[in-house]
Amino acid sequence: MINQAAIQHLSAADPLLGSLIARGREIHPRPHEDLYLALLRAIVSQQISTKAAAAIWKRFQALFPPEGYPEPREVLQMDEDLMRSAGLSRQKVGYLKAIAEYNERGLLDYEHLSGLSEEAFTLHLTAIRGVGRWTAQMLQMFALDQPDVFSEGDLGVQNAMRKLYGLEETGRALQKRMLLIAESWRPYRTLACKYLWQSLDNGTQIPPTV
User: Fold this and answer.
1) Is 148 a catalytic residue?
2) CA-to-CA distance for 6 and 191, rounded, in angstroms?
3) How far, in whole angstroms, is CA 2 from its chain's centroid?
4) Average pLDDT over all residues of the chain
5) Which of 74, 85, 63 is nearest to 36 (CA)?
6) DSSP conformation letters of 6-59
7) Which of 92, 112, 167, 193 is the most buried (most CB within 10 A)?
8) What gap in Å lies between CA 33 and CA 180, rounded to an integer?
């Protein structure tokens, strides 16, 4: 179901963003409870384009016939070179195994994690090797569909806001400016980010669930 209240708020608070939303396709929330799977996919998607991430993910799933589901124990037992044959770097293979081990310990429970604050959720996930703040934010936005998450460090959001607002800053100055602009979007910054991602042509770092 489309959140009309969120769209109305964003459009009234920021006419430039409102025009972007009006030109875009409707975005529907699609939360899911499999945080383990969402986390694996987020790691695969790090630092690469949507197209490349989708291709690698498909090859990775093919390593787990017949359903294509990477059961944690299978991931932990799988040969690293076989996993790398899907297009994963050695570093990402290690990260995926760390996520599988975390899940095996019962530390990716949806009911528990969905009730945590943004800070507590981030601290919990970043305890996993290879999982940073960006990855935690992607899970909050997509797997949990939390409404007010803003990823100022995301390359896609940065590129979209540079284009929409004519921003010329870089680095921390850019992120500070982005945070100021996004302040009026509260409490619907997640939806704003999703429309920003959608507006891009090159797809760099757009999560595959957009």
Assistant:
1) no
2) 8
3) 20
4) 92
5) 74
6) HHHHHHHH-HHHHHHHHHS--------S-HHHHHHHHHHHTTSBHHHHHHHHHH
7) 193
8) 32
* Tens-digit pLDDT profile for residues 166-176: 999 999 999 99
Cβ atoms of 11 and 21 within 8 Å: the answer is yes
CA distance 147 to 11: 16
Q: How far apart are CA 194 and CA 116, in angstroms?
A: 22
Tokens of 102: 């975390």
Q: How far is CA 119 from the centre of its chain?
A: 16
Cα–Cα distance, 50 to 16 (Å, whole number):
26
| Catalytic entry in 79, 81, 109, 154 | 154
Nearest to 87 by CA among 67, 109, 59, 62: 59
User: Among 119, 160, 155, 158, which Cα is nearest to 137's?
Assistant: 119
Q: Above 90 in pLDDT, residue 46?
A: no
Quick one: pLDDT band at residue 1, thresholds 50, 70, 90?
low
Beta-bridge partner residues of 49? 204
- DSSP state string for 106-166: T---HHHHTTS-HHHHHHHHTTSTT--HHHHHHIIIIIS--TT---TT-HHHHHHHHHHHT
C-alpha 93/C-alpha 81 separation (Å) is 9
Give the closest residue to 28 by CA, choosing from 161, 190, 199. Answer: 190
